[in-house]
């Protein structure tokens, strides 16, 4: 239970730190321009947004699509949150992918804007808007109720595997062994990796992977799902299984040395 509380507490701390990092990494001028474009779209001015598109994208079809996207915005003033900000600058050309969550009473939208800056001019490369069934932070909240058995199994392993590895590391440190450093490294690293998306239940398996302490979690932002990861603690299992044999082998090797010292 303490491990579970520690995991939840760590998730809360990471959420705070990650939101601060998103805000820090968001390019302010580009974000202001993107939000202005979305505001124009929300107020039915698709023509202004269309005029910002790079030349090859300015077609009657793209104008019609922008008009349809504008109809997704409800009336009223939304709460706007930056949920993603990616900047890529190559040879002086900046590319910016900015994602926002628009929250209205009972309605949520996810809007993405792609911009390119050339010679101090911003050009719109793409814009997407989609409805959300709920706020991202609610949809991706780490909750224990109503999950399938696989979720609880992976969660239990994510708490137990590190404890097993730490226990094996302590026993290894206290055991007289030859090449102890190699055993410590073997024990500390879990082999292979199972990844579980806590929100969707999607999973992935990485056969070639080494994970420190055999488990962990990843959350890209407070709006992203928690990804639990678990690896096979092969080193810990092998060491605990062979510990007595290793001790016996060490004692047998030590006897001839002791007899030699006694003769001298």
UniProtKB/TrEMBL annotation:
Domain of life the protein comes from: Bacteria
Signal sequence, start to end: 1-20
This protein's UniProt keywords: Membrane, Signal, Transmembrane, Transmembrane helix
Record carries keyword Membrane: yes
Membrane-spanning ranges: 149-170, 182-200, 220-241
Protein name: Lipoprotein
Organism: Andreprevotia lacus DSM 23236
Source organism phylogeny: Bacteria, Pseudomonadati, Pseudomonadota, Betaproteobacteria, Neisseriales
């Amino acid at each position: 239970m303490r491990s579970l509380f520690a995991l939840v507490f760590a998730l809360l701390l990471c959420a705070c730190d990650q939101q601060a990092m998103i805000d820090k990494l968001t390019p302010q001028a580009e974000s202001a321009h993107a939000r202005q474009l979305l505001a124009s779209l929300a107020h039915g001015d698709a023509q202004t947004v269309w005029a910002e598109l790079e030349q090859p994208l300015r077609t009657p079809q793209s104008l019609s699509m922008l008009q349809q996207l504008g109809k997704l915005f409800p009336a009223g003033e939304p709460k706007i949150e930056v949920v993603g900000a990616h900047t890529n600058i190559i040879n002086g050309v900046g590319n910016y992918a900015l994602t926002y969550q628009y929250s209205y009473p009972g309605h949520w939208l996810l809007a993405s804007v792609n911009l390119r800056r050339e010679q101090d001019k911003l050009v719109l490369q793409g814009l997407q808007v989609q409805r959300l069934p709920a706020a991202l932070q609610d949809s991706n909240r780490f909750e224990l109720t109503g999950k399938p058995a696989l979720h609880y199994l992976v969660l239990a392993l994510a708490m137990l595997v590190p404890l097993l590895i730490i226990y094996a590391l302590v026993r290894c440190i206290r055991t007289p062994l030859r090449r102890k450093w190699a055993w410590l490294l073997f024990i500390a690293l879990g082999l292979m990796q199972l990844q579980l998306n806590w929100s969707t239940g999607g999973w992935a398996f990485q056969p070639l992977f080494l994970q420190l302490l055999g488990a962990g979690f990843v959350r890209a932002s407070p709006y992203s799902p928690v990804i639990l990861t678990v690896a096979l603690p092969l080193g810990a299992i092998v060491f605990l299984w062979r510990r007595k044999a290793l001790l016996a082998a060490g004692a047998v090797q030590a006897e001839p040395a002791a007899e030699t010292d006694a003769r001298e």
